[in-house]
Structure formats: structure tokens, C-alpha cells
Design a protein that fits this description.
The complex is a heterodimer.
Chain A: H1 7-24, H2 28-31, H3 35-39, H4 51-65, H5 80-89, E1 98-100, E2 113-115, H6 126-130, E3 136-139, E4 142-145, H7 155-159, E5 165-167, H8 171-175, E6 181-183, E7 189-191, H9 201-205, E8 211-213, H10 217-225, E9 230-234, H11 246-256, E10 260-263, H12 264-284, E11 290-291, H13 296-305, H14 319-330, E12 335-340, H15 344-350, E13 357-360, H16 361-370, H17 390-393, H18 400-409, E14 417-421, H19 425-435, E15 443-447, H20 463-478
Parallel strand pairs in A: 9-10, 9-12, 11-15, 12-13, 14-15
Antiparallel strand pairs in A: 1-8, 2-5, 3-4, 6-7
Chain B: E1 5-10, H1 13-17, H2 26-29, E2 38-43, E3 60-62, E4 65-67, H3 72-95
Parallel strand pairs in B: 1-2
Antiparallel strand pairs in B: 1-3, 3-4
The chains are: A alpha/beta, B alpha+beta.
Chain lengths: 480, 96
């Protein structure tokens, strides 16, 4: 499960808010190059080797927040103000949605197993006897693993009588369900976009914060400053993300500069209704099973890693897609911004003609901070022209989609749900098996994030409290 | 009625985003012997985030003193120190 309570999160949120604050004050271009120095003055204790490295990494973080791919940086570094101009001038956002700050990557161990000081160099030496690759030698009275020979099988760890051998994970690689993040020849990580599914887990897993999403806050802020009409399309997992009632968060979104605030749960209802129709049709046609389609990281994973399952993935579009279509119809000539918990939605948004930008709740929070908005102190407001029901609003928790589809299928067919809650290698293998007709049910719901969207990488609040808040919200609504 | 350590955790939006949401569990982490000497409350935005001189959010005010970039560890440490002083003060009174 995702743990966001850490300093990397703190730093990211602080910088996002600072960038927006300076932009709204009209001082971003002139002051951004001073930010790294101000945050890490010479007198301050360095987090890394020295304040200069801290400053350099901060500058790269700011680039990612400006939406720049760090991989594109020329050898002669450009001042940050150059990237501010570039960000303000761009017409649209582009792929990839992630970027790696190689300077921040600590190049974690190549080998996952390490012999600690607890090794006593015993006579039995089961580690070396049981190693299938002769990777363990003894230097003095300590075992040592030769990284060239070690294949990370872990046998040595299992047999050591002193528990002297530890497993050291590479957090980003461990988080990635598809092996898309790997080491270059220097041992630093890079993303293979032929494999990446944009789930964003690596961005939150790396303890050095070396992988970041390319933010679109500048693009959205620019449109606000230019006086454009902006439509916010807010995902149902917004409940409980910010202090106060949901209606106060809606008011806060208006305060930021959005003229229209739409509920994506309405689109989720359309998704559930259409998926129910398709489900009944497919069963009648003898398909035997159907996979849901709303999670973009999972659908990308199917396309790239389990193509045999592709024909079972529902052709129904996502809640964001239906909502954006409604928005384009009702509010033409507007800037349409999806706001949710998801990084993969940034990828989906680039490919959806009705979606201009995608922000996370965290990035929305940066707008609140930059505009000094205290959600809980605002007068309540409501979503514009919404048709959402509790079924669509229940989408963001694992099996919420299943429940909604089940509701709309009604007595027409027996839904036998198979949830894959949190997509990992095992889940991908399951999908491959399901494609061969070995599914233990007929409605496969896949959520890339364990727990559902409400546990996505872009959330602000701990899912423990937001799941409770969402349930209370749905229950309150169910009462007459 | 004995004196208590007054702890105010800001639950304004900026503090919430920057980590205050995790501080509200502090009551559960407090040493049992100190619990009845500490009063913990969530309070609305105190405006501290708007002034850079007060430091960075999240803010916690303990007996009128502002603690910036509050973490569980920092806040617990402060509370325990003050609560023990109060308790020591009590026993001192008894002896007098």
C-alpha cells in the first residue's frame, strides 16, 4: 500500500505551491532561479552530500513541476527562467507523463542481497555451500557476495543461521508492476516507455523522489491568468481529500478560477450503464467474460503486456471520457481540466480530444495553498448540472465499479465478479490465463492501484480516512 | 482541576496538505500516564501559513508556542516534556 507521509511528498508539495504563488504574483520568471538557493542556503545542513547538490536536484524538481522532461536537458544547462518561458508558451502538453531526475537517483544496489556485520564467518558456511552460482567468497571472516555472479535468488539469506544477510529492495523497480524502470550503465534508473503503463507508482516509491510526473499546473494557471473559462471535471475520490465538506471543496475549486465544476461520477454512471449493456451482450454472444475499462494504467498494461486479454476489455469509455464529452457539448470553447488521484489519467488525457489538462488532487492542493484558500472556511457550493448517482460515486474504491455494473445489469445476467485489486505481475499473469478461458468468473474488475483510485498516487489524504469519508457520503445520500 | 498542556493542531487546508492530517492520531500515541494532563484540539486555520516568518506548515501551537514543520516526533516530544513538568509540579506541591 502506498505511503505518502514522507519528506519527498513534503518537498514536492512545497515546491508546487511556491511555483504557483510566484506565478500568480507575476514574479516566477525573475525569481525561480533563486529558489533552490533560498531553500538550501549555505548555512543549512545538506540532505545530500552538500547544499550544492540539494540545490541542483531542487532545480530539476522545479523543471518537472514546470512540465519539462529532464531527459531533454542540454549539456550546457539553461536557467530555470528559460523553462518558465517555454512552459508558458506551450500550446498543449505531450508525452511522456513521467520524467526521471537522474541526478537525484541514488543508484540503489545492483544486488538485492547484502551480507551485514552480523556475519560471523562460521565454519558451516551454508550461504556459500547453497549458492547455485558460486557468488559467495570469504574475505577474512566475512562472507561477501560477488555482484557479477549473484542472481538474486535469495537462498543464502534463507540458510544463514545468524540472519546476517539482508534483502535490499530497489524501491522504484519493486513498485513497478511491468519492469519498465531499469538501470542504465551507471546504475541509475530510466524508464522504458515501450513497457511503462504510467501507473506512477515509481514516483511515490522512490525514497529520493527521483521520478516525477511532468506537472501541468503552469498550463492551467496560465489559462486562469488569461481569463479563460475553465471547466473542472472532478473525480469521485475527491470526497475527504481536503478539510471541510465536499461542497466547500467545490467552492474552493471555483475560488481558484474554475467557472464550471462537474462531477465525473456522472460519467462513471454512463460507464457503468454502457458496461452493463455490453456485459449482457457479450454473455449472450458467448464471450464468457468481460474486463472493465476505466483504469488507464490497467488498459495500457493489457495493451503492452497481456495482448491476448485485449479482446475481453470492454469497449466502453472511461468516466473521464464521458464527462469530458458532456463538458465539450455543454460548455464549448472552454479549457477542460480533469482533477483526480491518478497519474495514468495524464496519459489518457493527452489522447482525449475533449480533455485539455489533468491535475492530481495534490496539484489542486498546490493551487489552494498558492491562493491562500482555506477550504473549511468557505460557503458551500454544488456541482454544476450533475446527473450522478451513488453507483457512479462509488467507483473509486475497489469493487465499486463491479457493484455499479451489477446494479445496471440487474436480473438480466448473473454477474460473477473477479476483482484484481492492485495490478502486479501476478495479476497480469492471471489476465493471460483468463484470456485462455480460465477465469473463475465473468466480470473482471482491475484496479491498478491497490484499494482503487482513492489510493492513487495523486491523493492528498490518507485512504484510511478518505474511504471512511466516501462511505459516509454515500450512506448519507442513500437516506431520503 | 489540574492544569493541562494545551495542544492546538491546525487543520486548515495548507497544514492538512503538508501533513497535519497525520498529526490528529497523536492522542493515541501519547503515554497513558500523561493523557489526562493534555488537551488536544484541531483548530481552524490560524493564518500562520500566510506569514513566512512563522515558518512552514503544518503548524501546531503548544501552550501558546508555535511549532512549525510539525511532525509526530516533534510534537510528542514537546507535549511529553511539558506534561511531565506539570506532573512534577503537582508532586512538588504535595511535598510542600
Amino acid at each position: 500500500m502506498l505511503v505518502l507521509e514522507n519528506r519527498a511528498t513534503y518537498i514536492r508539495r512545497e515546491l508546487q505551491a511556491k511555483v504557483l504563488k510566484l506565478l500568480f504574483a507575476g514574479r516566477l520568471e525573475e525569481e525561480i532561479d533563486d529558489l533552490p538557493r533560498k531553500l538550501y542556503p549555505r548555512k543549512k545542513d545538506a540532505v545530500r552530500c552538500c547544499v550544492y547538490k540539494d540545490r541542483a536536484v531542487t532545480a530539476y524538481r522545479l523543471m518537472a513541476i514546470l512540465g519539462i522532461s529532464i531527459e531533454d536537458e542540454p549539456d550546457d544547462p539553461l536557467p530555470l527562467r528559460h523553462y518558465v518561458r517555454q512552459a508558458l508558451a506551450r500550446e498543449a502538453v505531450c508525452e511522456p507523463v513521467l520524467t526521471v531526475i537522474d541526478e537525484a537517483c541514488s543508484a540503489c544496489v545492483q544486488n538485492n542481497y547484502y551480507v551485514t556485520d552480523a556475519c560471523r564467518g562460521c565454519v558451516a558456511r551454508p550461504c556459500s555451500v547453497n549458492c547455485p552460482r558460486e557468488a559467495i567468497s570469504f574475505q577474512g571472516d566475512r562472507a561477501k557476495i560477488d555482484p557479477g555472479n549473484c542472481v538474486n535468488c535469495g537462498r543464502c539469506q534463507g540458510v544463514c543461521p545468524y540472519n546476517a544477510i539482508v534483502y535490499q529492495p530497489v524501491p522504484c523497480e519493486e513498485g513497478c508492476p511491468v519492469g519498465a524502470i531499469k538501470k542504465d550503465e551507471r546504475g541509475r534508473e530510466y524508464i522504458d516507455y515501450n513497457l511503462c503503463i504510467f501507473c506512477g507508482r515509481c514516483t511515490r516509491a522512490c525514497p529520493f523522489g527521483a521520478i516525477m510526473e511532468r506537472s501541468q499546473i503552469i498550463d492551467v494557471a496560465k489559462h486562469i491568468q488569461d481569463g479563460k473559462t475553465l471547466v473542472a471535471m472532478v473525480a469521485p475520490s475527491i470526497v475527504g481529500q481536503f478539510p471541510g465538506a465536499l461542497e466547500q471543496t467545490i467552492a474552493a475549486i471555483r475560488e481558484v478560477g474554475f467557472s464550471v465544476v462537474m462531477e465525473v461520477a456522472a460519467g462513471a454512471d454512463t460507464t457503468a450503464r454502457n458496461e452493463a449493456e455490453e456485459f449482457v451482450e457479450r454473455l449472450n454472444d458467448g464471450d464468457g467474460l468481460m474486463g472493465t475499462s476505466c483504469c488507464p494504467a490497467y488498459t495500457e498494461a493489457v495493451a503492452k503486456h497481456a495482448p491476448d486479454f485485449q479482446r475481453f476489455v470492454s469497449h466502453t469509455r472511461t468516466p473521464m471520457s464521458y464527462t469530458a464529452e458532456m463538458a465539450a457539448e455543454h460548455y464549448p470553447d472552454t479549457v477542460r481540466v480533469f482533477i483526480g488521484p491518478c497519474i495514468a489519467k495524464k496519459f489518457e488525457g493527452i489522447h482525449d480530444e475533449n480533455v485539455d489538462y489533468v491535475l492530481t488532487y495534490e496539484e489542486l492542493g498546490a493551487f489552494f495553498m498558492a491562493c491562500d484558500i482555506d477550504t473549511a472556511s468557505l460557503e458551500e457550493s454544488t456541482f454544476d448540472a450533475t446527473t450522478a448517482t451513488r453507483h457512479g460515486r462509488g467507483f473509486p474504491v475497489s469493487q465499486g465499479v463491479t457493484e455499479a455494473v451489477k446494479h445496471y445489469v440487474g436480473p438480466r445476467a448473473a454477474v460473477q465478479p473477479v476483482p484484481i485489486d492492485g495490478l502486479k505481475k501476478k495479476g497480469l499473469n492471471q489476465l493471460k490465463l483468463f484470456a485462455q478461458g480460465k477465469a473463475p468468473g465473468n466480470l473482471i474488475e482491475v484496479m491498478s492501484c491497490e484499494g482503487g483510485c482513492i489510493c492513487g498516487p495523486g491523493v492528498v489524504s490518507n485512504p484510511k480516512s478518505t474511504v471512511r469519508a466516501l462511505r459516509a457520503y454515500l450512506d448519507a445520500e442513500a437516506k431520503p | 482541576m489540574s492544569e493541562k498542556v494545551q495542544v492546538q493542531i491546525c487543520v486548515g487546508t495548507a497544514c492538512h496538505i503538508m501533513g497535519a492530517a497525520d498529526l490528529v492520531v497523536i492522542e493515541d500515541l501519547l503515554d497513558r500516564s500523561l493523557r489526562d494532563r493534555v488537551e488536544i484540539a484541531g483548530v481552524a486555520c490560524m493564518g500562520l501559513c500566510k506569514d513566512e516568518a512563522s515558518g512552514k506548515p503544518p503548524f501546531v501551537v503548544i501552550d501558546g508556542q508555535t511549532l512549525s514543520e510539525a511532525t509526530l516526533d516533534k510534537v510528542l516530544g514537546q507535549i511529553e516534556q511539558r506534561a511531565r513538568r506539570l506532573i512534577d509540579g503537582d508532586t512538588g506541591d504535595v511535598g510542600a
